[in-house]
Structure to design on (264 residues):
């Protein structure tokens, strides 16, 4: 369903993606796994017509997204790292609006919205404004929206970012259910090794713009003699997993700890 050959992206003199190759089969959940700054979002953008590759080739369901962007866009749905549902609209209205943009005919739209809201446990809340939703509900709504035009591939860029562990688990359960119910191919990114281990049929581990391993989680673990993907990552790169870029809040907490330590 996805074929990538020697894909490269440079920003000025900086090489963000260094000639990666991989294939994703139809119906598969494929995880693109790697620490912050590894090149995951850059790769997703090249696969989804948002960034032009510097070199290399991409094929989505037999199409080159750079040559036929409009045709390619009909084949996939995408959920970005940053939230993008409209707070003032209800869950139903958000989906309806998106369906109009994608020219889904009215009758099909109504059926599809009902099916997806039910699949994602949001049907009872369809008439509530999204501003009343929890983080997990919003994420589920975004994923439902990405599926409205019945794409063959769903791209999810760090869908569990900012969610608590319980909500993350729930989200992965929904993704698995949807993969089975709709037979949609899922390409997701995460920096949490354990999540990929649990949800993905196959993974590619990316570090500093290079794929350092790919295969089923079991294959990767056994090839490195590791118990977990996290251990495998360590064995493959010789590096510890880099911390997430500190947010403003983290920095403030760190400073406040330092400051309290000094006073004590
Ligand atoms: N538009 C850009 N201009 C310059 N550098 C960029 C740009 N986008 C991403 N990068 C750099 O490319 C690298 C990979 O970024 P990204 O693909 O966002 O990583 P990830 O999603 O794996 O965290 C990072 O070092 C990032 O700073
Ligand atoms: Mg990213």
């Amino acid at each position: 369903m996805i074929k990538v050959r020697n894909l490269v992206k440079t920003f000025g003199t900086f090489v963000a993606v260094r000639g990666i190759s991989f294939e994703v089969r139809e119906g598969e959940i494929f995880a693109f796994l790697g620490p912050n700054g590894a090149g995951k979002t850059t790769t997703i953008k090249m696969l989804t017509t948002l960034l032009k590759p510097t070199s290399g080739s991409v094929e989505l369901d037999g199409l080159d997204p750079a040559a036929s962007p409009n045709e390619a866009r009909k084949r996939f749905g995408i959920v970005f790292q940053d939230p993008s549902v409209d707070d003032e609209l209800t869950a139903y209205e958000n989906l309806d609006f998106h369906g109009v943009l994608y020219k889904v005919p009215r009758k099909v739209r109504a059926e599809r919205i009902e099916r997806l809201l039910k699949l994602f446990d949001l049907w009872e809340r369809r008439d509530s404004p999204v501003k009343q939703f929890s983080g997990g509900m919003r994420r589920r709504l975004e994923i439902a929206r990405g599926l409205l035009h019945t794409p063959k591939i769903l791209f999810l860029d760090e869908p569990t970012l900012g969610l608590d562990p319980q909500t993350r688990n729930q989200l992965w359960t929904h993704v698995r259910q949807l993969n089975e119910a709709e037979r949609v191919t899922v390409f997701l990114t995460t920096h949490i090794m354990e999540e990929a281990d649990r949800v993905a049929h196959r993974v590619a581990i990316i570090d500093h713009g290079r794929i350092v391993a790919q295969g089923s989680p079991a294959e990767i673990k056994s090839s490195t003699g590791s118990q977990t993907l996290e251990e495998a990552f360590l064995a493959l790169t010789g590096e510890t997993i880099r911390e997430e870029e500190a947010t403003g809040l983290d920095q403030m907490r760190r400073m406040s700890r330092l400051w309290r330590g000094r006073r004590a």
